[in-house]
Task: inverse folding
């Protein structure tokens, strides 16, 4: 009886699916009386608003024999997309596409892994590299939003977001009670602002904590100073491919109350959850997460160079070392937050070139710090840890008492706004601001053992991925993926006062490869930097490095929020590889659909039958 029932259900399901053939889904912003449909081989089929988002339209329609395109329907004034889409044979669902974009998923080559991750990491779709997701914010507090946009430098309270929706090709996440504010310091000078999202900020007390990829706080980075908009994303991916603990980043379109705000890089912000994700494999119950302090440089006299000046807290300017998160350390409060860090600086000052590996390992995992220093140097991160003694987090593990340094804020890298062009070719021994003190760098590279290891790290990174033969294909893929969104972004009127970034759509592709508007090209920089390192350390960039051992640590989150010790859990479309790269496919083939993803694309009747059949 059960087998007969399952057969009948399967036949009914096949009929329901084949009757429509394909489940279409598109993000769109129809105006007035417009509705949304899909034109398949010239015939328009209406789509329905999804319950997940009023801007997501779904429905069943035949599989195209040739092409299909989405249409804004308005009587005789229908507005089809400017391009036609093609579909792979056997596709049962398009995934969530975006009206006006010719393609959703792109083939972006992953960076080869130089070293396995030093710390166990939670790998998630936060680090997508091959698609642009969409974030839609809706707020009824238009007065507060308008005040914030008109006065981005003002000390204003967060604007409550009634509904936030994150939509990628294979997943939709919705939130309420989100806090929204402007973000950054120098970025507030620009008309295109950067923003911060605080999940659960206005949620009722005691309600379950909502997370996006295990995050509670996120930033939307405008990348206003970078004509390519990819430098920061590339640097984050380089750190992951080098085995460093790092923030994640992915490209998103931003809409607020139906208005387009542009293309952004969605990145992490400091929180206990961030440290749990990147140092403790996503163990959100970890009791080892100590305080996280942000290092900052105010000027050449006041900088977060980790120099020990004594135990008196007054010797350390407040803005130079800022407590970002207490972690699980209940003893930390505002007036004593620097005490543990001063202890670190004291222990660092006591190390000598003759100090043993055991001495260093009491303080930190040296190789992890060397990886961050190597990429600071290779990218000429002139606003970063090594050169500027700025833009890093330092976190203490309460169980091992080791400290981990995590660098961030990478828009000014790979030659961007580089005033001293010598930094593009200078040997690492000369990579420092004149007359500056860098105890961490000097102590580590003053050790013969760690100096040799640092050079090995540099060579391995260059041989594996920091070279034009690897980067060229990745940058070309990003040109194809981002060019439509860049053109859209640069056609928008800004929502805040401030200076324009000065870029036009054509600067995007040109700036990827060659000097444009007096800014060195991204690939041009990588070519010169890698050639100089090869010459200085007398090696070639051929990848003759031994294969890495299998990576067995870390944990993986799928598109449904399930966490596993292995990738591809739950038939996860969009699995994350050990280097943090997303591996989503271009269209949804039947074998890849899990129960929840199938539910997203089936009609209500088919969904009901699918649920019933799954119970048997």
Result:
């Amino acid at each position: 009886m059960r087998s007969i029932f399952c057969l009948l259900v399967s036949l009914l399901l096949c009929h329901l699916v084949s009757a429509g053939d394909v489940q279409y889904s598109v993000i769109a912003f129809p105006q007035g009386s417009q509705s949304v449909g899909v034109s398949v081989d010239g015939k328009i089929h209406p789509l329905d608003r999804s319950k997940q988002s009023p801007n997501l339209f779904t429905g069943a329609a035949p599989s195209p024999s040739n092409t299909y395109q989405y249409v804004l329907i308005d009587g005789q004034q229908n507005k089809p997309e400017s391009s036609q889409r093609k579909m792979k044979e056997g596709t049962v669902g398009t995934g969530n596409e975006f009206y006006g974009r010719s393609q959703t998923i792109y083939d972006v080559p992953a960076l080869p892994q130089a070293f396995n991750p030093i710390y166990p990491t939670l790998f998630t779709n936060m680090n997508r590299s091959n698609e642009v997701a969409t974030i839609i914010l809706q707020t009824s507090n238009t007065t507060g939003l308008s005040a914030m946009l008109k006065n981005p430098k003002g000390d204003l309270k967060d604007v409550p977001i009634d509904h936030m929706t994150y939509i990628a090709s294979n997943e939709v996440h919705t939130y309420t009670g989100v806090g929204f504010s402007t973000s950054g310091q120098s970025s507030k000078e620009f008309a295109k602002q950067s923003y911060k999202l605080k999940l659960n900020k206005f949620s009722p007390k005691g309600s379950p904590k909502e997370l996006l990829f295990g995050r509670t706080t996120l930033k939307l980075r405008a990348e206003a100073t970078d004509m390519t908009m990819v430098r920061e994303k590339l640097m984050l991916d380089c750190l992951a491919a080098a085995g460093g603990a790092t923030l994640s980043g992915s490209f998103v379109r931003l809409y607020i109350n139906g208005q387009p705000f542009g293309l952004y890089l969605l990145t992490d912000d400091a929180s206990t959850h961030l440290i749990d994700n990147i140092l403790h494999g996503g163990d959100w119950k970890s009791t080892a997460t100590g305080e996280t302090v942000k290092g900052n440089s105010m000027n050449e006299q006041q900088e977060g160079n980790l120099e020990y000046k004594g135990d008196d807290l007054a010797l350390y300017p407040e803005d130079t070392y800022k407590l970002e998160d207490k972690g699980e350390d209940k003893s930390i409060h505002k007036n004593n937050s620097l005490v543990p860090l001063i202890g670190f600086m004291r222990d660092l000052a006591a190390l000598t070139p003759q100090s043993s590996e055991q001495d260093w390992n009491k303080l930190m995992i040296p190789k992890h710090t060397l990886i961050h220093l190597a990429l600071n140097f290779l990218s000429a991160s002139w606003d970063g840890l090594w050169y500027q003694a700025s833009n890093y987090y330092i976190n203490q593990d309460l169980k091992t008492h080791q400290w981990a340094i995590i660098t961030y804020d990478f828009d000014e890298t790979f030659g961007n706004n580089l005033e001293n062009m010598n930094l593009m070719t200078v040997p690492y021994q000369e990579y420092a601001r004149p007359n500056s003190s860098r105890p961490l760098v000097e102590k580590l590279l003053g050790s013969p053992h760690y100096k040799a290891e640092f050079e090995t790290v540099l060579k391995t990174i260059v041989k594996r991925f920091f070279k034009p033969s690897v980067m060229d294909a990745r940058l070309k893929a990003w040109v194809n993926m981002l060019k439509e969104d860049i053109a859209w972004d640069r056609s928008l009127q800004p929502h805040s006062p401030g200076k324009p970034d000065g870029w036009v759509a054509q600067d995007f592709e040109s700036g990827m490869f060659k000097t444009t508007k007096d800014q060195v090209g991204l690939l041009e920089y990588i070519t010169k930097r890698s050639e100089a390192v090869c010459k200085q350390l007398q090696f070639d960039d051929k990848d003759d490095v031994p294969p890495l051992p299998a990576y067995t640590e870390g944990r993986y989150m799928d598109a449904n929020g399930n966490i596993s010790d292995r990738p591809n859990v739950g038939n996860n479309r969009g699995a994350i590889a050990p280097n943090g790269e997303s591996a989503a496919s271009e269209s949804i083939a039947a074998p890849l659909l899990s129960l929840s993803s199938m539910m997203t694309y089936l009609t209500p009747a088919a969904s009901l039958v699918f649920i019933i059949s799954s119970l048997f």
User: Anything to note?
Assistant: The CA atoms of residues 35 and 73 lie 5 Å apart.
